[in-house]
Write a structure and sequence with these properties.
The protein has helices spanning 5-8, 22-33, 40-53, 61-69, 78-81, 84-93, 97-111, 124-128, 142-155, 162-178, 200-216, and strands at 9-15, 37-39, 115-121, 134-139, 191-194. By secondary structure, it is an alpha/beta fold. It has a domain at 1-18 and 123-198: Rossmann fold. Strands 2-3-1-4-5 form a 5-stranded parallel beta sheet, with helices on both faces. Helix 3 packs across helix 4 (61-69), helix 3 (40-53) packs across helix 6 (84-93) and helix 4 (61-69) runs parallel beside helix 7. The protein is globular. The protein binds cytidine-5'-monophosphate. Residues 18, 40-41, 44-45, 87, 90-91, 94, 121-123, 172, 176 line the site of cytidine-5'-monophosphate.
Length: 217
């Protein structure tokens, strides 16, 4: 029997706020399924990083769009781009519609490769891949996320103040949720996974259960 497009191209869309655990979830699922993974946050971070490095303003849409159009997904370096300050800058760049449109083309191209892919971000289930057969929305309370982010920075040898990180997490949530274009929001058909009280393994097992149920349909 011929396979349907949905069977051959299993796109998994994972959204959620900063430090919700969606990135780890996405990496584990991609590995489990043997499909490529794109952390779309890195695409916004790369644009912000390029602007900062060149000493260019973060709010000039023409310049930011040009940088976004030239972005090569093969060059995204998580180690360089994961700095807290680059995340802040990325969420400023991410409010500009023309930057989003430019990155959207690259993100959709990645999603539509044969065999499927896992993408994580803020608007994957709502805008980038609205037809994805599996959509997860991963959340956790701001306090839990701030604690995780603080511990992560400290474990990498950096210094972080929990109260400051919590304030930043809340500010970023506000900016991401209230922007006019592609705000952070669960798709109507997304499965909600609250990881506030779950360790990553339990959350991952729940996600695998959801994926298997969709595959079995
Ligand atoms: O997930 P991460 O913290 O790397 O994302 C950095 C910023 O990029 C987010 O705060 C958000 O403003 C933006 N972003 C977005 N849409 C996505 C992924 C990230 O607007 N799909």
């Amino acid at each position: 029997m011929q396979k349907t497009k949905e069977e051959t191209q299993m796109i998994i869309a994972i959204d959620g706020p900063a430090a919700s655990g969606k990135g780890t979830m996405a990496r584990k699922l991609a590995q489990h399924l043997g499909v490529p993974h794109l952390d779309t946050g890195l695409t916004f971070r790369a644009v912000a990083h390029a602007l900062l490095e060149a000493g260019l303003p973060l709010d000039d849409e023409n310049v930011a769009e040009e940088v976004a159009r030239k972005l090569d997904l093969g060059t995204l370096d998580r180690d360089v781009l994961s700095a807290h300050a680059i995340g802040e800058a990325a969420s400023k760049v991410a409010v500009m519609p023309r930057v989003r449109t430019a990155l959207l083309e690259a993100q959709r191209g990645f999603a539509n490769q044969p065999g499927g892919a896992v993408l994580d971000g803020r608007d994957i289930g709502t805008v980038v891949c609205p037809d994805a057969p599996v959509k997860l929305f991963v959340t956790a309370s701001p306090e839990v996320r701030a604690r995780r982010r603080t511990d992560e920075i400290v474990s990498r040898g950096g210094t972080a103040d929990y109260e400051q990180v919590l304030a930043d997490v809340k500010k970023r949530d506000e900016r991401d949720s209230t922007r006019a274009v592609a705000p952070l929001l669960p798709a109507e058909d997304a499965h909600l996974l609250d990881t506030s009280k779950l360790d990553i393994e339990s959350a991952f097992q729940q996600a695998v259960g959801i994926v298997e149920a969709v595959k079995a349909r």
